[in-house]
Write a structure and sequence with these properties.
The protein is of the alpha+beta class. Helices cover 47% and strands 20% of the residues. The chain has 20 helices and 21 strands.
Length: 681
């Protein structure tokens, strides 16, 4: 791809300079290129680079700069080499380069000392190391040379330049390009193994320095929430400049995705305080997704180097996008597990007020909000009243009432749509003056509804890090409240009917009894069976490959599958059997007054019902369908306590899984020995 701008070169001056430094004629000299467009500062820097002070005492005088400037003008006008000896005794040559838009104006050679002046200085007792016709060894002193020898070197080098340009530079360029291409290909493979973005940035940063001799590189990445951060500042002092996230993000969003040459002042708009003459910006783009940018400062890239860097940056972008996708999947799985845990915790709450507080606290935790309120609809007058608050004076929360359709919460309740605001004062949808008790101007307000019926409004504000709320935050809390609001609604319904205790023993998702009820009921069944000298069984069930199903189809499909399974189990069990959700995708049944032989018929009916039922997306599972495995244990033969009986059923379930799943296994003592062997392995 061609750069937008004039900074791509067909002849790379760096290649030419490297070739000249390896030429036998230039062995004693330090070499540097100079172009008149570099101005006085560029000339001063060039002189400092090639003239080494002796003992740190010799300083370049004003006359040196004037003499160099005069020599350069003479050389360029005459198109001939010019020899100069500065007042301090250094000898230099100035050679005009062939006219080529890709090359600087001239080559300057220096860093050697005039032989006669050195000898005279030694004779006069001045502080210059003495040496006759040999290299001065002391303190990194320059070599000695006569003006005649310098003129000869300059003349020969001047005549050799056209040949070097025509042949050798291109040979070197081809060789270097081949080596760099091979290196970039290897780096592309190494990038695919990077475990995180920091490794990828470190790898590319090192490659830009080692492969392309770049001295100033800036790498910026876009983080979750669309914030941008600086990740690499090679050759730069990060304390001297800042990053304008919004301006750079807008620029990248409008860019074509191709590398762009930028003048220093335009780049400085993105990075206030950054001093640079020019830059080449390589956007990190994959499938129209802007991930950041790699910026090379103060160097005019050769076309082949620009293409190779673009290739490397594109591979980096691909890896970053892959890591981003993988992290998204990991977070989704993590959130699914967290959501199940949160809902399970809520199911154990035994009062409405505690339920409201827990829902508000969990919502705030998900979004790192430090203040908020849960408002419920009062059906008697249609107003919204605060049922739970965070970061608010309790006395104020108790008396605060919002009329339906008025204020922020009232309008959200009436519209039925959530409201995400970054600035409460400038957002035209609200345009309210921010209240002193709020630390930030960003907030989220969303309606809580069950089957289209309003239950209340949840308000969250003041992220702990001071950042704005995002669409991702809104989606996250909506997923949670979709489940939580059903518990709020059911709690209200049960309390009205005097049945709130039922909420504490019922799983909110499936409607089955929960683990808390199972433990209480098991104690009763042990006591009853012992008194009447009867047996009873428990069946421990687990959906096969359910985690895979959840990852493939999503937690919503997983919830639906659990609900369908619960209905099938209730339908397949007998009226006297107790069906409970044990946790996650596990279920437990208590079969009162039932022998082990009788329990097999119940278990098989459940297994067959699940196996015969159709579940969306189940064809992607290892068995091609969603199935269930079951383990059966009997009191008193397999255990005389709840822990013993559940342990026995769990071993039988584990054996059913090991035998291929979609089956039932009765507990037998040999399973204990098999479990011990497995544990030792």
């Amino acid at each position: 791809m061609a750069l937008t701008g004039p900074s791509v070169k067909l002849v790379d001056p760096r290649d030419l300079l490297e070739m000249l430094r390896q030429h036998p004629l230039t062995a004693p000299f330090k070499l540097i290129f100079y172009a008149e467009q570099h101005g006085r500062k560029g000339l001063q820097q060039a002189i400092r680079d090639i003239c080494s002070p002796l003992d740190g005492e010799i300083q370049c005088l004003t006359e040196c700069y004037q003499d160099f400037a005069l020599g350069i003008s003479q050389s360029l006008m005459a198109k001939q080499p010019v020899i100069r000896a500065c007042p301090q005794g250094f000898v230099c040559f100035i050679i005009p380069l062939p006219e080529n838009k890709d090359l600087p104006d001239c080559l300057i050679g220096g860093g050697v000392f005039e032989r006669k002046k050195a000898l005279r200085a030694n004779q006069e007792g001045l502080n210059f190391p003495a040496a006759k016709d040999t290299v001065i060894q002391a303190r990194q002193a320059p070599q000695l040379i006569s003006l005649t020898e310098a003129e000869s070197v300059a003349e020969k080098l001047f005549r050799a330049l056209p040949r070097i340009l025509e042949q050798q530079v291109h040979t070197l360029s081809l060789s270097r390009t081949t080596l760099r291409l091979e290196a970039v290909q290897k780096l592309a493979r190494d990038l695919a193994d990077c475990a995180d973005s920091e490794q990828a940035v470190a790898l590319v940063s090192e490659a830009l320095v080692v492969l392309f001799n770049l001295s100033r590189v800036l790498i910026v990445l876009q983080q979750p929430g669309h914030t941008m951060t600086i990740h690499s500042t090679l050759g730069l002092d990060p304390g001297t400049f800042q990053l304008d996230q919004n301006l750079l993000a807008d620029f990248l969003e409008r860019s074509s995705g191709l590398p762009q040459a930028l003048p220093g002042e335009e780049l400085a708009a993105f990075f206030p305080g950054l001093e640079t003459q020019s830059a080449c910006l390589f956007p990190l783009v994959v499938n129209n997704s802007r991930l950041g940018a790699v910026t090379v400062l103060d160097i005019e890239l050769h076309g082949r180097d620009q293409a190779l860097i673009e290739l490397l940056v594109n591979r980096m972008a691909t890896r970053l996008e892959s890591l981003k996708t993988a992290e998204g999947h990991r977070q989704e799985r993590q959130f699914s597990a967290r959501l199940v845990s949160m809902i399970s915790t809520l199911s154990l709450v035994d009062s409405r007020q505690e339920l409201y507080l827990q829902i508000l606290e969990m919502s705030a935790e998900l979004l790192t909000a430090t203040s908020g309120s849960l408002m419920l609809l009062d059906e008697t007058d249609g107003s919204l009243k605060i049922a739970a608050s965070k970061g608010m004076i309790p006395a104020l929360a108790k008396v605060m009432t919002v009329t339906y359709g008025e204020g922020i919460a009232g309008k959200v309740a009436k519209s039925g749509f959530p409201l995400l605001v970054n600035d409460i004062e400038s957002d035209k949808r609200v345009a309210f003056r921010n209240r002193p008790r709020f630390k930030t101007k960003s907030f989220v307000s969303l309606p809580l509804e069950v089957e289209g019926r309003l239950v209340g409004v949840l308000n969250l504000a003041d992220k702990s890090n001071g950042a704005n709320f995002t669409e991702a935050d809104l989606n996250l809390v909506q997923t949670f409240t979709k489940h939580a609001v059903m518990m709020i609604d059911r709690a209200a319904t049960l309390e009205k009917a005097g049945q709130f205790e039922q909420l504490a023993i019922t799983d909110p998702l499936t409607g089955l009894y929960n683990r808390r009820f199972l433990e209480d009921r098991l104690r009763e069944e042990f006591s009853r069976s012992e008194r009447q000298q009867q047996s009873f069984c428990i069946i421990l069930c687990d959906l096969d490959n359910f985690k895979i199903y959840n990852d493939i189809c999503g937690h919503l499909a997983g919830d639906n599958a659990l609900c369908k399974t619960a209905k099938l189990m209730r339908r397949s069990a007998r009226d006297m059997d107790i069906v409970t959700r044990y946790g996650g995708e596990e279920f437990c049944l208590i079969l009162p007054s039932t022998s082990k032989k009788e329990s097999v018929f119940v278990a098989e009916r459940i297994r067959y019902a699940i196996d015969a039922e159709s579940f969306p997306g189940e064809s992607h599972l290892p068995l091609g369908r969603l199935t269930i495995s079951l383990g059966i244990a009997t009191y008193p033969a397999d255990g005389v306590t709840a822990n013993e009986l559940i342990h026995a059923a769990d071993l039988a379930l584990y054996r059913a899984k090991a035998l291929g799943r979609n089956r039932l296994v009765l507990y037998e003592p040999a399973l204990e020995h098999q479990a011990q062997l497995t544990h030792r392995k």
